[in-house]
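Narrative of activities, Objective 1.

The group set out to show that a structural description can be obtained from nothing but a protein's sequence at a throughput compatible with the screening campaign. Below is one input-output pair from the validation batch, recorded exactly as produced.
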Amino acid sequence: MRHYRTFMVAIVCFTLSSTWVHAAQPTISTFTVSPSSISNNYNVSVAWNIDNSVGADLLITCPIGVYLKDTNGATVTCGNRFPVSVAVGSLGYTVTNVSGSSATVSVRLFPKDQMNVVYDALSTIASFTASSAVQPISDFSLSSTTVISGTPAALSWSGTDAPGSILVFSCADSVRLYKDNATTSAPLPCGNEVQTADLPISGTYVFTAVNTSLSAVPVQVTIRPAIAAGLYDASRGKTLSFTVAGYVLPPEPVVQSFSGTVSAVGTTTMLNLQWATKNAAGANIQITCTEGISFATSSNAKTLPCNTPAFSQPLTSSGTTTLIVTNPDSFVRPISLLLLPQKSNGTYQGTVGKSLSLLVPARVVIAAPQPPVSSLAALSIALTSTSTATRMPFLQNLKRGSKGADVTQLQQFLAQDTTIYPEGTVSGFYGPGTERAVSRFQEKYGLAKKGQRGYGTCGPATRAKINSLQTP
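Output recorded for this entry:
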């Protein structure tokens, strides 16, 4: 009897255990999506009623370009399965369609039993259709329809619904486009998307167009709404046409002034220069090579080259500088300099430069102290010198390179006429200055002309004329 009771208890326990482990299958009584067809940005409601259930899973499948938000405004991720914890309920969604055409969205319900077990085999599907937005981008404008080359311009646009946008510029042979004002960076691509990441559906974009031709060039820019990441709707883009003005040649540089003075500071000759230019990016100085004459900067005594821009770095367009000039000769020497204005491209414009000619004094020689001379003796020496300079006849030919008393006497004679010998240097050396003075003397009295034999040389005819003009 005792064994019978144990057996009956076991049967009852097994029966109760089987009842608890195996819950009844859930049954979907109703599952609807309403309305079945909606316009863009309208709401849809998903409702369900499940018997023998504690809830379900939902899976919403959206075509590309369709987006859903719940009643709290949160984005719903299509294609992801998510749970609902009630057997009878409903959810509402706002549907946005930017695909460009009507799209069907499907919603699948996976019921759960009272043990929270999901029955995929008992799932059911409901669907609805959403029409597309007509034009996601409502406005597209440019700050000016004529863009000045090298000057930033701004694009502006506004739109709704689409997750983003992209810009595409047309190509033109002589036009390069840059983001913002970064003209030293790589240019933007043309004929294709200008950026890798989407722009917002409403926003601005600053660009700079550089036109290397002298003529205006037409360019187009199109903004396209995004359907999805990396996918854009070209059929509903907006296009603007604008003109990039031709390249304007910068004005030619002009030298307004170039002057200089020579001054002696002890035994050093200083050359003070000043200049002013217009439309120039900078300036430089070119020194004409003169045999024996050398130039150096006053700051570091660096020797400057001649017959080429003297400074390795351009000077300011207007300014001053001081040079050290060395004249090894014992007579005045002429020098010539040319101010070179610099163009915006860094080249120097020699054709509009301004030249400057100056005289460099003779080498400074510190004479040895002389014994005092009485006033009567000094007068006697002066009279003797003057008499010798004006009355002694010239008996030998003189030419460039000659030295001695005859040259001294010749220089003293020529210096009496400043139109012939403006330098008036009496050094005893027949140099370039004396040669030029003799040439002027010959031209004045019809003795020789430039290019003729003996021009600039004190030969027989020239000596005879000088002797005839000396005071008896």
